[in-house]
Amino acid sequence: MLGHEAPWREWRQAMAGHRMHHAWILSGPQGVGKGSFALAAAAELVAEAGVPQPEPDAHPDILIPEHPPATKEDEKKREAGQPFNRKRAITIDEIRNLQRRLTTRPTLGRRRVVIIDPADHLEKNAVNCLLKSLEEPPEGTYFLLVAHRIGRLLPTIRSRCRILRFAPLPDAQVELVLSRAVPNSDEATRAAAIVAAQGSPGVALEFVEEDLAPVHQLMQRLLDEGDAGFRLRGALSAELGARPSRERVAATFELARAVLAGALRGADPARQARLIEAHSAVARLGLEAPQFNYDAAMLAMELGGLIAAAH
């Protein structure tokens, strides 16, 4: 893993202490590596000297509730071993299944870790259900809650957790991630991805993998020029595609948020206010998009309008 020396230092100091806190929130922008940190940190915590340890994502003492299939058709696809779409939210049934497993002892040692990724995508009923476990954790059980937007977590959840904060990575580290993960990508595309990502390797990888360079150029023009004649919004709609995958839509929204956030630096107060308002609106629309099955063309037009409004 690259970067995040401060969270690692805080985590290992806690592990070395006499009473480690049982619940942690890993808070920071999406795509900076919180999920990878959670797996690696969990593996350190559950390891027992002299006991062979499986890989973290297959470890019996590292429990990760899943996002279930989105529809009954997707359930059939999962059973058939085919690719399928998942629900955006972690449901109460997944948390109840988890709690049943917590009534047993850890398998390979004295500790187990529950990773909720992301915790800000829990259903409301699932949050209340999880709260019971945070209030009365089984002995030897620790919780790592990954949060892209910590403000969306209930105060009752936040008050029971210690917070680890994750900052964006330097551009040099984002570039190193790209060079390792997509070594054959175009140099100009990687350079644009680094600028657009604003310190998030995950956003940079999605930029390259989803070929979002043309989308990024259109977003910048919408921000710089506005779009009185709707021409740029139409071009953005065409670039997104008639039937984009969920991954492409999600990556487009993360890119839009990064573009707006990047424009804040050096902006005058009036423009900063417009950028912040547009950023909030894009974030809300991004949360709604997977749930309401919007028409892709209308979604792109709305997204383009929000960016143009910050011109």
Automatic annotation (TrEMBL):
Record field: compositional bias (Basic and acidic residues): 69-80
Top-rank taxon, per record: Bacteria
GO terms, biological process: DNA-templated DNA replication
Region of interest (Disordered), residue spans: 53-81
Protein's UniProt name: AAA family ATPase
